[in-house]
Write a structure and sequence with these properties.
mainly beta, Immunoglobulin-like, five-stranded antiparallel sheet, three-stranded antiparallel sheet, 1 helix, 8 strands, 15% helix, 59% strand, elongated
């Protein structure tokens, strides 16, 4: 019996240590791709953000982020705009309690400006403008708004 218990303990430890990293890294909820006529595209990613604290019984609070990456026609992500929102839902309603906009360039030829954001009802939004420079001349301008919405049952889109 002692051999069986030792064997079971070893197998359990192996499973815990091998499966945990796979689940710990899976915070992506959804990915959507919008192809543009010029060959560039927007890639939208919704991710779970850990929410600390005690949850009330009748309402649930969750924090999520929604990021739109602008990818050029060569397939390189050059800038992004993100909104991180905290939402409370339950009892047939949902409400955004905070929204944090952010944006950044991922390429030295691009600069990001005009970063704004806000919340209204069950939505969190962020807007930013990416500009591609050739020297000191702006040769491309892309403005994008990202909206994260929470449904009354906790569905995020």
């Amino acid at each position: 019996m002692k051999k069986f218990t030792t064997f079971f303990t070893i197998i359990s430890m192996i499973l815990v240590f091998t499966l945990q990293p796979a689940f710990a890294q899976s915070n992506v909820i959804s990915v959507d791709i919008e192809e543009l006529p010029d060959g560039s595209r927007f890639i939208t990613v919704i991710e779970d953000v850990p929410t600390p604290g005690i949850q009330p019984f009748d309402r649930t609070t969750e924090t999520k982020s929604k990021t739109v990456y602008y990818e050029n026609s060569a397939g390189k992500s050059v800038w992004y705009v993100r909104v991180t929102g905290t939402f409370t839902y339950g009892d047939g309603t949902a409400r955004c309690t905070s929204a944090t906009p952010s944006a950044a360039s991922l390429d030295s030829n691009w600069k990001v400006s005009d970063i704004t954001g806000g919340k209204s009802g069950n939505k969190a939004t962020a807007t930013a403008t990416g500009k591609r420079y050739n020297g000191n001349i702006v040769v491309e301008t892309v403005t994008k708004t990202v909206t994260l919405t929470c449904g009354p049952t906790g569905m995020f889109y």
